[in-house]
């Protein structure tokens, strides 16, 4: 979302919220005024309703900038709560004193007609994209690398040595210098004269200690050798440049207040964080399955349950057992330290925007990193064989219970042994990483890719029939086949794969499902390779 569009939506949301806030404040004041004019004391039920209404205002008004009203309503709600907890029903004249305090808070609200002009916003420059300059005199290599990095979400411009002034004016986040065509003697002096240089990555000819040591001494933060491998450069940039991860963090927001949840959504979006809002607690489990978040923001006071109960319900499913939960704590819940027993953190309402972003980034990044290194194959970044096996058992049991179609595919690179023999294991590893990257980019987010063995990958496709799975893998096969990769400067080498597809939901066991795709992959190899066999190809 562009910054200008986000600002427009935030301002429209503020107008919508203030309109609701006017109505809520007037309704609460009218109720307090009516109780203060009686001859007898108000009932506990009436006081409970007033307390909840005022606490709701206190929890949300500060997030939209109305701190005085939030503080006033919070103090009055706290006073009413103390009366209720102590079994005291206040006299009418006591409630009249509360009325004057609420009137003061209401006076802090802006006039709706003047709101747009009073809160004009200024568009800011979008800095989400990471800019990479490619410096070299070999056009084919520059173009191949530029296309690969652009596909991963980077903004790439190519330059030759006599264009370095234009390169410096562009102010990239990183520069990748191709030493295969631009020797170090041509660029080292220029680089050392740059007062505030970006990150330097070097693509060199020599894969030895001396070459790497020399690159480090000239300021390199990354060193790469043929064949060109965009995935390795991507990992290096992810480490060097904050926010360079192509896939944004995902946050599930469970909050029944529509305006407040939309405010959280827009604030997170402004920080480059994706989010999914659930206003009805019963829809949370479906949202978890479809969205698969890195973190959940959960209101502590939902209409049908508490925040802790919601977290425990989510964690009944082993898939979400380790999902970080950050509570949006209202009223006295802020002081309930026991909340952290089933969640990682809590933020007191009204939630400060900067605190929201900082807390989400801290916990979500840590959770994603932990999952990545514990269950991910070091070379390809996809699931390890052990993690894949555990996931297959979970999805098999779920498919058996629900009856929903779930499919498996076994994919193996053709002639990977010959590739290693003729071009070296570095080329073979590169092609394996390339296929893993291609699968994770082209499949749905709810699909899972795991390293099976060597150049083979197993793909799990929930909520997908074997026929649809075969079509999806066939589409990926054609796209992968159309790519040509430069291998060790010996020319272009086309790479293909074969695959077998079967349903997991109708198999008697996980082992039977794996055996089915293994047999179909074997027949695809015998039939000439570079093809996908499924149910209709027996």
Automatic annotation (TrEMBL):
Domain GGDEF, residue spans: 404-537
Residue numbers bearing the 4-aspartylphosphate modification: 178, 299
Originating organism: Chromohalobacter beijerinckii
Enzyme class, first EC level, given as a word: transferase
Reactions accelerated catalytically: 2 GTP = 3',3'-c-di-GMP + 2 diphosphate
The keyword Nuclease appears for this protein: no
Record EC number: 2.7.7.65
InterPro entries on file: CheY-like_superfamily, Diguanylate_Cyclase, GGDEF_dom, Nucleotide_cyclase, Rev_trsase/Diguanyl_cyclase, Sig_transdc_resp-reg_receiver
Segments crossing the lipid bilayer: none
Keywords: Nucleotidyltransferase, Phosphoprotein, Transferase
Protein name, per record: diguanylate cyclase
The keyword Ribosomal protein is annotated on this UniProt entry: no
CDD domains: GGDEF
């Amino acid at each position: 979302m562009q910054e200008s569009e986000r600002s427009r939506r935030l301002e429209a949301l503020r107008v919508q919220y203030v309109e609701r806030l006017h109505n809520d404040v007037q309704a609460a004041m009218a109720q307090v005024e009516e109780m203060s004019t009686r001859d007898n004391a108000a009932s506990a039920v009436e006081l409970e309703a007033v307390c909840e209404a005022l606490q709701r205002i206190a929890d949300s008004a500060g997030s939209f900038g109305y701190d005085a009203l939030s503080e006033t309503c919070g103090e009055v709600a706290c006073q009413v709560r103390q009366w209720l907890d102590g079994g005291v029903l206040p006299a009418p004249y006591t409630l009249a004193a509360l009325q004057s305090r609420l009137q003061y808070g209401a006076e802090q609200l802006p006039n709706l007609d003047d709101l747009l002009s009073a809160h004009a916003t200024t568009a800011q420059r979008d800095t989400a994209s990471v800019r990479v300059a490619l410096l070299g005199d070999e056009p084919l290599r520059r173009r191949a690398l530029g296309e690969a990095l652009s596909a991963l979400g980077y903004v790439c411009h190519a330059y030759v040595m006599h264009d370095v002034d234009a390169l410096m004016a562009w102010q990239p986040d990183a520069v990748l210098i191709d030493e295969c065509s631009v020797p170090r003697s041509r660029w080292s002096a220029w680089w050392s004269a740059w007062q505030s240089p970006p990150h330097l990555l070097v693509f060199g000819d020599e894969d030895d200690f001396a070459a790497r040591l020399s690159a480090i001494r000239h300021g390199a933060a990354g060193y790469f050798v043929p064949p060109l491998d965009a995935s390795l450069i991507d990992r290096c940039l992810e480490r060097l440049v904050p926010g360079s991860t192509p896939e944004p963090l995902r946050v599930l927001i469970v909050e029944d207040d529509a305006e407040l949840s939309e405010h959280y959504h827009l604030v997170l979006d402004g920080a480059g964080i994706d989010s999914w809002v659930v206003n009805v607690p019963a829809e949370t489990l479906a949202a978890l399955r479809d969205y698969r978040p890195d973190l959940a923001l959960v209101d502590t006071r939902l209409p049908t349950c508490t925040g802790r109960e919601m977290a425990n319900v989510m964690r009944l499913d082993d898939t979400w057992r380790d999902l970080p939960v950050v509570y949006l704590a209202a009223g006295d819940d802020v002081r309930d330290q026991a909340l952290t027993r089933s969640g990682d953190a809590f933020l007191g309402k009204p939630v400060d925007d900067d605190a929201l972003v900082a807390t989400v980034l801290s916990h979500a990044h840590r959770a994603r990193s932990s999952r990545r290194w514990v269950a991910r194959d070091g070379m390809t970044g996809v699931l390890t064989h052990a993690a894949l096996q555990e996931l297959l058992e979970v999805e098999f049991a779920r498919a058996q219970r629900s009856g929903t179609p779930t499919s498996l595919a076994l994919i193996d690179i053709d002639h990977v042994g010959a590739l290693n023999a003729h071009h070296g294991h570095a080329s073979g590893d590169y092609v394996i990483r390339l296929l893993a990257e291609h699968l994770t980019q082209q499949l749905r987010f709810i699909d899972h890719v795991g390293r099976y063995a060597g150049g083979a990958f197993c793909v799990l496709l929930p909520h997908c029939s074997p026929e649809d799975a075969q079509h999806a893998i066939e589409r990926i096969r054609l796209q992968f086949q159309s790519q040509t990769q430069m291998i060790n400067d010996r020319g272009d080498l086309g790479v293909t794969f074969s695959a077998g597809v079967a349903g997991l939901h109708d198999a008697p066991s996980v082992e039977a499902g794996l055996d089915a795709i293994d047999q179909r992959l074997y027949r695809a190899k015998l039939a000439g390779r570079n093809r996908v066999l499924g149910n209709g190809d027996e």
